[in-house]
User: Which sequence fits this backbone?
């Protein structure tokens, strides 16, 4: 059973430039369905696990949603890296993955662009899938 | 002199700006022919030695932008023609096919010329030339072999410090003999994908993870109590939501004019009803795990056609009611006993995610270090820089707030003066490094371009190969296979996944079931209590044991009957399901039997073998052959064939929906 991938509204970017010093950040959001979701978001250059199913979900109902802002103060920032979301379907059947590019100016937090908005489905317990986003920062 | 220059420059600038304005207004509908015409006009100005430098600079920006647009349009048109060619190949005559191939070839020649930076006026002339011999699709651009080992120039001080990540393997050296031009590979479904999906497919094919089959003890067949069931034993659990079993008439029935005997049963879990009543997604992890107790209870409703004693007619229909309680379920993934295993699986997935990103980093570095690719990239970068001038002037993009036109000119000049080796410098860990003197503007513009480059070029492997040649991707694939053999992050993930899956599947389950068959017409009702035990004896081998006691209540005085039965079944999964690669479904083979005693009769036994194919996700097709010790037990013959369909709606739901409105 292959993973069925549906790109919503054509939102599937390969890379993004984030002006961190200018108040920009990325917001990762993962919505899961199934008994035991297993997913990981990893920064390839710093080897840092940014978000996973081990984290506390931001909301549990009506949908179970995990969220992570990047970078946080403690996050090492490298000029170019890859942020890869890995998803496992052993005991999960669906993941909805969204990445937003935000800019904060004063008290105004606006979405610059939705970079990724993809739904992944599979009923094959042997399936997994990876979605990579190139991240360039200054 | 100044006045003369001004009078000569002004109309030109006005003309170019007017042309640009007109064409940008037509942008959405710009065709290949229109673009070609515009480019020819702009090229005339570009080649004119009398064109003042400032006009030339402006003109060259517009020209580069249109050439890029035309490249994109040509690539799209070529891809569409290839698709058309493949689709209608059998329907067209040889001459018609040749016409299509000739069109493709012409467009490919144009595209190649654009990629090489040749003026369009030259290639426009090729259109008038006789049609060349058709060539195979995707004739590759002839570029130098990608040499992953070629280190880019290393500036002394690295501005950005990379955290301590040690790469165990370096990209392979390319032998001189490998520099020969490689034949263009045919476009495949994989290479038509974007780089992300292509890499997933390549890694999957290398790993060839062979995971075991899906849940193998969720019963969807009609219960063994029914005459027409294809199973002798019942299993300890059923579908999480709703399971339906439909057994069609036996293969051995003789007269086609007679009414055939069928049986149907529907089993639903209390959990499915509870989730529906609460209007909650039953697959919400929190809800699913919090309400485990509701998944311990199932209800069954159905009917069973029963035949007359001589088996010639269906003389009554019995209604079936049942309830099943899963007393012990060690196969629930949410059990605490599996939490460490899932934590380990998460770690394996994190390692594999890291490796996936790392591969992309290496691919990106390899592209920017490749000499031939850099030439194309630097020209693209120049085009991009010129296009950013207007954005800077407009001041609409906060990311460019610190960038001036002079910063852009400086970078354009660096490209023009072949100082490209100071741009896009990737170190050995494929991290971009800047000379200490690099301004913020230079960094911002380069980094923005690298992001744009990926968004423009990682959307299709085929398009990338057409633009940069096939060598980079081919070399990367070889590296991927070699590196995965050594590193095995993905293999470890597959192994961890499989080990946990088998551990869960082999855990025991124990349940109690009560079933009754009501026959209002005759007043003879059956009541059955059952113990059911499932246990994974070995990988892909499952043992199921049943112990039954049946009481048949008759309205006749002294007509009550009592019966006992024990049954067992071994289930073998014949194939190891490789899953998504080839789409193979699990095939199960069963061997089972039962022995029963009944008031006033001799002990009886059945032996059954059965094979079950998964036709589609959630729909199985069982075929069984049963031997009985007494002829009367299976009608006119001692050996009887039976087939049916089973439907597991929870699997169907998972397969075809992201959540039905009912559950949202």
Assistant:
């Amino acid at each position: 059973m292959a993973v069925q991938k549906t790109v919503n509204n054509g939102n599937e970017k390969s890379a993004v430039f984030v002006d961190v010093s200018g108040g920009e950040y990325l917001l990762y959001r993962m919505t899961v369905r199934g008994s035991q979701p297993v997913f990981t978001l990893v920064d390839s250059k710093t080897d840092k696990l940014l978000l996973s199913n081990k984290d506390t979900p931001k909301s549990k109902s009506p949908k179970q949603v995990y969220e992570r802002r990047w970078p946080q103060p403690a996050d090492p920032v490298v000029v170019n890296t890859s942020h890869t979301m890995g998803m496992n379907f052993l005991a999960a059947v669906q993941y909805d993955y969204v990445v937003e590019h935000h800019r904060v100016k004063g008290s105004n937090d606006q979405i610059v662009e939705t970079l990724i908005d993809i739904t992944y489905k599979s009923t094959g317990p042997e399936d997994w899938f990876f979605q990579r986003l190139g991240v360039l920062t200054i | 002199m100044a006045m003369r220059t001004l009078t000569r420059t002004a109309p030109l600038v006005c003309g170019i700006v007017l042309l640009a304005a007109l064409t940008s207004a037509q942008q959405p509908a710009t065709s290949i022919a229109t673009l070609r015409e515009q480019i020819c006009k702009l090229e005339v100005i570009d080649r004119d030695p009398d064109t003042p430098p400032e006009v030339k600079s402006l003109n060259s920006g517009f020209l580069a932008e249109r050439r890029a647009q035309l490249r994109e349009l040509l690539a799209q048109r070529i891809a569409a023609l290839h698709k058309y060619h493949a689709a209608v190949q059998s329907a067209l005559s040889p001459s018609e096919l040749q016409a299509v191939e000739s069109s493709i070839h012409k467009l490919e020649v144009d595209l190649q010329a654009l990629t090489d930076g040749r003026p369009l006026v030259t290639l426009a002339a090729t259109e008038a030339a006789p049609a060349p011999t058709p060539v195979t699709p995707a004739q590759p651009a002839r570029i130098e072999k990608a040499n992953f080992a070629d280190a880019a120039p290393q500036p002394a001080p690295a501005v950005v410090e990379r955290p301590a990540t040690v790469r165990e393997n370096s990209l392979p050296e390319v032998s001189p003999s490998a520099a020969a031009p490689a034949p263009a590979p045919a476009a495949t479904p994989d290479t038509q994908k974007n780089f992300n999906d292509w890499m997933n497919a390549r890694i999957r094919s290398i790993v060839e993870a062979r995971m075991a089959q899906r849940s193998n003890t969720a019963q969807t067949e009609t219960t063994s109590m029914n005459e027409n069931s294809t199973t002798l034993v019942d299993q300890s659990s059923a579908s999480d939501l709703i399971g339906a079993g439909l057994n069609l008439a036996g293969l051995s029935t003789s007269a086609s004019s007679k009414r055939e005997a069928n049986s149907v049963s529907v089993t639903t879990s209390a959990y499915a009803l509870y989730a529906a009543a609460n209007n909650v997604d039953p697959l919400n992890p929190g809800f699913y795990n919090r309400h485990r107790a509701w998944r311990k209870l199932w209800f069954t409703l159905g009917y069973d056609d029963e035949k007359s004693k001589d088996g010639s007619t269906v003389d009554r229909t019995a209604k079936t009611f049942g309830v099943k309680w899963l007393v012990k379920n060690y196969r629930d993934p949410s059990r605490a006993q599996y939490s460490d295993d899932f934590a380990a699986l998460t770690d394996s997935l994190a390692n594999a995610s890291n490796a996936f990103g790392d591969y992309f980093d290496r691919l990106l570095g390899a592209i920017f270090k490749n000499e031939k690719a850099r030439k194309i990239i630097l020209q693209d970068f120049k085009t991009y820089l010129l296009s950013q001038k207007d954005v800077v002037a407009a001041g609409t993009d906060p990311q460019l707030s610190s960038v001036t036109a002079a910063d852009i000119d400086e970078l354009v000049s660096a490209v023009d003066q072949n100082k490209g080796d100071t741009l896009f410098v990737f170190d050995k860990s494929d991290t971009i490094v800047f000379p200490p003197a690099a301004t913020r503007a230079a960094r911002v513009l380069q980094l923005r371009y690298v992001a744009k480059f990926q968004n423009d070029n990682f959307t299709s492997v085929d398009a990338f190969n057409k633009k940069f040649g096939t060598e980079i991707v081919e070399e990367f694939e070889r590296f991927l296979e070699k590196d995965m053999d050594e590193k095995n992050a993905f293999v470890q993930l597959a192994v961890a996944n499989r080990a946990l899956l088998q551990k869960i599947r082999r855990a025991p389950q124990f349940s109690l079931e009560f079933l009754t068959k009501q026959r209002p017409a005759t007043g003879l009702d059956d009541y059955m209590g059952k113990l059911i035990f499932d246990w994974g004896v070995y990988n892909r081998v499952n043992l199921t044991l049943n112990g039954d006691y049946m009481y048949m209540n008759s309205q006749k005085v002294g007509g009550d009957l009592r019966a006992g039965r024990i049954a067992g079944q071994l289930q073998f999964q014949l194939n190891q399901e490789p899953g998504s690669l080839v789409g193979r479904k699990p095939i199960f083979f069963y061997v089972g039997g039962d022995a029963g005693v009944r008031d006033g009769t001799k002990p009886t036994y059945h032996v059954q073998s059965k094979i079950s194919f998964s036709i589609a996700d959630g729909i199985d097709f069982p075929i069984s052959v049963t031997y009985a010790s007494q002829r009367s037990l299976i009608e006119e013959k001692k050996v009887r064939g039976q087939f049916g369909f089973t439907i597991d709606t929870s699997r169907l739901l998972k397969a075809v929906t992201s959540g039905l409105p009912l559950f949202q």
